[in-house]
Design goal:
eight-stranded antiparallel β-sheet, 1 helix, 68 strands, mainly beta
Length: 712
C-alpha cells in the first residue's frame, strides 16, 4: 500500500476567490479573423471567440470592442443606416456608437448564428445557419422570416451567403435534399426562385459572394461569376482548382482576390486567370479579404490580419493589440515559458511580451500538435504539414528530423527518459537515442491491440496512455500494464501526480481516476462538474488542478474528492485549452483570447514558515466511512517515530499492513486503504507509534484503534 506525507514548507491558505482576477497577457497576438469591414475611419474585424476588434488607424493598432456582446465568434459585419451590425455566435448585435456598445436584436431564431448580411437601404437580410433568411425593415433591430420558396422553407435551411444588387437579392441555400443551391428574390425577400443556370447541380454551396459593379462572384467548392444578377453563371477559376474551399472574395474592377486552399489568389483580369500571392503571407487558410481604396486586407485562420498597399504584391502582418489566438499548451524551460498557438511563442517576462520562435518555418493553418523543450533543443510537430522539426538555436532555424517517422501523423507528446526520447506516434511508442535524428518502435512486445496518444514522465517512470495505459522505468525496454479499474475504451488524455496519488482524466464526462499504487489499480472519481472532460492535471504542493476545456479550471485540496472552479472570470464562452504554473503565476491558454494569467497567491496564499508540528499523536476516523472499496486513514505524530499501521478483521486477523515499523518524521500523514478483495463488514485499524529522542533513544509510545465499515 502506497503511503504519502502531507508535510510542506508552506501553509496553503484559502483566498477569497471572488476577489481574484485573471489578467490577459500581451498576447500572443493574432487569431482567426472571419470578416473585415470598413466604415469611414473605422476598420472592424470579426474574430473567433473574441468578438469585434476595431482599428482607427488602418490596422496599425487594434482594440477589442465587446461591451454588450461578450465573447462571441463574429462571422459577418455590415452597416444599415447609422447601425453597425455584427453577427455573434448566436443572433445579431447592433451598435450606433462605432462599436463602443452593442445591443442584441430581436426576432431571430435562438441557437442559430448569422453568417452573412445583405443591405438595401433600411432593409437588412440575414442568412442563418439552419433557419433560412430573415428580413429586417428597421436597420436590423427586429426580424422576421423571409424563406418562402427556399429549400426547407426556413425550418431546415442552411444559408451559405447572401448578396444584394439594387433590389435583387441572391442567396445560396440548401436543405441538402436538392442539387439547386442558388436562389433569387426580386420582391424584397417575399419569395424566392432558382437562379442556378450554369452552376453545377451537385449540392455545392457557395459560402461567400461579392458584388463589384455589375459583377457578382460566388465561391465555395467552385468559383463562379454572373454579370446579369444570376440569370446565368460562368466558371471563373482558371488557376484555382475545384474543391479548394473558397472562403473570401473581394474585387475592384479587374483586380480580384479569392482565398482558397491555404493561399490567397489574385487575378488582374476580372477573374479569368489566377495566381497565388506570396510576398510575406504564411502557408495558411485565408478566411476573408477586403479592398479599401488602394489597400487590401486579408484575414487568416490563425495569424490575424495582413495588409498590402501594392495591389497584393507584398504583405505585412498587422496584429498589434489583436489578442485573439487559440493557445493549446505550455512548456517550461527555466525562466522561459513557451506557448503553442498555431505557432511557437516564448516569454521571459511572464507574458508582458511574446516572441515568435518559429524562425524559418512558415506558420501553417494547423496548430502544432507538439511543442517540446529538451535542454537547448526545441521540437515542433505539425499534422500533417511538416512532420517533426528540431531547432538547436532557440528557434532561429529549424530542420526536419525523425527518420523512422513519416511526415503524416502528428506527434502530441514527447518525454526525455535517461538517455532517450520517447514519443507516442500513430498509436505506438517510438524511441530515439540520438536526440530525435532517428526513431524505432519500443513497444513491440505489447502486441497489436494497444493505442497510445500520449507519453507522460513522472519521476523516473514514463506512462504511455490513450485507449490503454502502460508504464516503463527502463526507457521503454519493458512495460507494465497500468489501467486496471478503468472503464473499457476510456481515452486517457492526461496523467499527473500529486503526493503519492496519480490522477488520470480523459474523454468521459465528469469522470476521472485516482491511483495510490503507481497505476497498478485505479478508482473512479466523479466529483468534477457534469459535462466536464479532463485534458490536463497539474499537482502543486497540497493541491491538484484540473483543466476541463468545456467547463474551466478546477482546484481540489483533498486529493480530488471535491473541486472548486477557479476560472469563472476568464472569457466565459471560451474553451480553456491548457494551463501551467510558472514563477508564482498560473497561466491559462484560451480559445480565441490568447494567454491569461493570475497570481498564484490568489489561489493558494503562500507563507514561508516552518511546518506545523502536531502537539499530540493521534489516529483520525477514516474518510469516507462507510466506504467502498477505498478510504483514507489519517494520523498525526508529534515526534520522529517508528510507526506501524495495520488493519484487522472481526476475528483479529491482520488483513493489511500499511506501515510496518517505518521511521517517519513528525507531522501529519494520510494513507489510502483499498479493500477491493475483502468482504463487507466491520474492520479495525491500529496505529502504534514508538517515539524517539533526537539521539535515537526511545522516548515513549502511543497506540490507538479505530473502527470502519466496508459496504459493497
Amino acid at each position: 500500500m502506497k503511503k504519502f506525507v502531507n508535510i510542506f514548507l508552506v501553509i496553503l491558505i484559502f483566498y477569497n476567490l471572488a476577489s481574484s482576477q485573471w489578467i490577459q497577457t500581451s498576447g500572443p497576438e493574432g487569431g482567426a479573423a472571419f470578416v473585415i469591414y470598413q466604415d469611414g475611419v473605422n476598420l472592424y474585424a470579426g474574430m473567433s471567440a473574441a468578438g469585434v476588434y476595431r482599428s482607427t488607424n488602418n490596422g496599425t493598432t487594434w482594440e477589442q470592442k465587446i461591451n454588450g456582446m461578450g465573447y462571441q465568434t463574429v462571422t459577418a459585419i455590415n452597416k444599415s443606416g447609422s447601425c453597425i451590425l455584427a453577427s455573434g455566435t448566436v443572433g445579431v448585435y447592433l451598435s450606433t456608437d462605432d462599436g463602443e456598445t452593442w445591443t442584441a436584436a430581436t426576432g431571430l431564431p435562438t441557437a442559430n448564428g448569422v453568417n452573412s448580411f445583405a443591405v438595401i437601404g433600411s432593409h437588412v437580410f440575414a442568412g442563418t445557419m439552419g433557419k433560412g433568411v430573415y428580413h429586417s425593415t428597421d436597420n436590423g433591430a427586429t426580424w422576421m422570416m423571409a424563406s418562402s420558396g427556399l429549400p426547407g422553407g426556413g425550418t431546415n435551411t442552411y444559408v451559405g451567403s447572401i448578396v444584394a444588387n439594387g433590389t435583387t437579392i441572391l442567396v445560396s441555400a440548401s436543405d441538402w435534399s436538392s442539387t439547386v443551391t442558388m436562389y433569387r428574390s426580386i420582391d424584397m425577400g417575399t419569395s424566392w426562385s432558382a437562379a442556378s443556370t450554369g452552376l453545377p447541380a451537385d449540392y455545392s454551396m457557395y459560402y461567400t459572394m461579392f458584388l463589384d459593379g455589375s459583377n457578382i462572384y460566388a465561391g465555395g467548392s467552385y468559383l463562379y461569376k454572373t454579370t446579369n444578377n444570376g440569370d446565368t453563371w460562368t466558371q471563373s477559376e482558371n488557376g484555382i482548382s475545384n474543391y479548394s474551399g473558397i472562403s473570401g472574395i473581394a474585387a475592384n474592377g479587374s483586380l480580384v482576390f479569392a482565398s482558397a486552399n491555404n493561399h490567397l489568389y489574385r487575378s488582374t483580369n476580372g477573374g479569368s486567370s489566377w495566381t497565388p500571392t506570396s510576398g510575406g503571407l504564411p502557408l495558411m487558410n485565408f478566411t476573408c479579404v477586403r479592398i479599401v481604396g488602394s489597400t487590401i486586407y486579408a484575414g487568416t485562420i490563425a495569424n490575424g490580419i495582413y495588409k498590402s498597399t501594392d495591389n497584393g504584391v507584398t504583405w505585412n502582418q498587422i496584429i498589434n493589440g489583436l489578442k485573439a489566438r487559440d493557445m493549446s499548451n505550455f512548456i517550461m524551460d527555466g525562466s522561459t515559458l513557451y506557448a503553442n498557438g498555431n505557432s511557437v511563442f516564448k516569454t521571459i517576462d511572464e507574458g508582458s511580451s511574446w516572441n515568435n520562435v518559429r524562425g524559418n518555418l512558415k506558420d501553417s493553418s494547423s496548430m502544432p500538435t507538439l511543442v517540446y523543450v529538451n535542454g537547448s533543443t526545441l521540437f515542433v510537430s505539425d499534422n500533417p504539414a511538416t512532420g517533426l522539426e528540431r531547432s538547436t538555436d532557440g528557434g532561429a532555424t529549424w530542420n526536419q528530423v525523425g527518420d523512422g517517422l513519416s511526415t503524416y501523423g502528428g506527434i502530441q507528446s514527447m518525454v526525455s527518459s535517461g538517455t532517450s526520447l520517447l514519443t507516442a506516434y500513430n498509436g505506438r511508442i517510438y524511441k530515439s537515442t540520438n536526440n530525435g535524428d532517428s526513431w524505432f518502435r519500443t513497444d513491440s512486445a505489447l502486441g497489436l491491440f494497444v493505442n497510445f496518444n500520449y507519453v507522460t514522465l513522472i519521476g523516473n517512470t514514463v506512462y504511455a496512455h490513450g485507449m490503454n495505459v502502460y508504464r516503463t522505468t527502463d526507457e521503454g525496454i519493458s512495460w507494465i500494464k497500468s489501467d486496471s479499474g478503468m472503464a473499457a475504451y476510456f481515452q486517457v488524455d492526461a496523467i499527473a501526480s500529486n503526493g503519492s496519488y496519480l490522477f488520470a482524466g480523459g474523454m468521459f464526462s465528469s469522470t476521472h481516476y485516482r491511483s495510490s499504487n503507481n497505476g497498478d489499480t485505479w478508482q473512479q472519481r466523479t466529483s468534477l462538474p457534469s459535462s466536464g472532460t479532463v485534458t490536463q492535471f497539474l499537482g502543486y504542493g497540497k493541491d491538484i488542478f484540473a483543466c476541463s476545456p468545456n467547463n474551466g479550471i478546477f482546484r481540489s485540496t483533498n486529493n480530488g474528492n471535491n473541486w472548486t472552479k477557479i476560472s469563472s472570470d476568464l472569457p466565459s464562452t471560451n474553451y480553456r485549452y491548457s494551463f501551467t504554473i510558472h514563477n508564482n503565476w498560473m497561466f491559462a491558454g484560451t480559445s480565441g483570447n490568447g494567454v491569461w494569467k493570475r497570481p498564484l497567491s490568489d489561489i493558494v496564499g503562500v507563507t514561508d514558515i516552518q511546518p506545523d508540528i502536531p502537539v499530540t499523536s493521534s489516529l483520525k476516523q477514516n474518510y469516507p466511512n462507510p466506504f467502498n472499496p477505498t478510504t483514507t486513514i489519517s494520523f498525526d505524530i508529534r515526534k520522529n517515530s517508528l510507526v506501524t499501521l495495520k488493519v484487522f478483521n472481526m476475528l483479529g486477523q491482520e488483513v493489511a499492513s500499511l506501515f510496518n515499523s517505518e521511521e517517519l518524521s513528525a507531522g501529519s500523514y494520510d494513507s489510502e486503504f483499498s479493500a477491493d478483495k475483502l468482504a463487507s463488514g466491520i474492520y479495525f485499524y491500529r496505529l502504534t507509534v514508538e517515539e524517539k529522542n533526537s539521539d535515537g533513544s526511545r522516548a515513549g509510545s502511543f497506540t490507538e484503534i479505530q473502527k470502519m465499515s466496508l459496504l459493497k
